[in-house]
Amino acid sequence: MAEMRVSNEFDTLFPVDMDLSSLRIVVVESSENRLIVKSIRKDFEEKLAVYNNAELNVDEVYVPSAWHIPYAVQEILQQHGQRFEPFPIVVVLACLIEESSTDFRMLCDNVSYGLMRISLDHKVPIVNGMLMTSTELQAERRCAGRSNALTGNTETFGGELATEAICIGGIKRVVKNLDADEDIKTEDSDILFYVGGIRIFNQPAADLVIRGWASQ
Q1: What pTM was estimated for this model as a whole?
Q2: Burial class (CB within 10 angstroms; exposed 0-12, middle 13-18, buried 19+) of 193
Q3: Which of 4, 28, 79, 171 has its CA 20 to 30 A from that of 11?
């Protein structure tokens, strides 16, 4: 049985030797508050390395500020979207601090809304790794990690983003590879939701993730 490393509720069922070679990641990184963003990036990469046993496909794009992130993401998907098939995931890394921006709330709201719209329009998952805090000290503390109520362990902000990327990538693979008459079943028969006419049952998310990355 594969070794397990626990840091949050998803990780309790994640083996550490998954083949994530088909996980195509595009990192869009803001230059604002660069030291904090670099720390997030380091934790993100280290967490991916915990579970992956293959070389990752990672492309990088740097932008001057968070304000330019939605534009950069949209241009990437419009100009190079097919290059990242079949399972592209965009990961946004940024740190916005209220004390350094007079338009903080407007900026946060508009960037978040823009990313959501782009994700839905292009049907590509976007992991929103914008760290938004009132002070630099809060940003440093949040970046360093917080305790998980379910496991009691501490997870860094970058580590959480890596787990999210693995989760959404694995679940997307499951849904995309399902046959029209195939159900995902559990011991109970409660239907959770429908996807394109396919019934998806109330199965633990981590089970779907593992199944997704097992189907190469």
Answers
A1: 0.74
A2: exposed
A3: 28
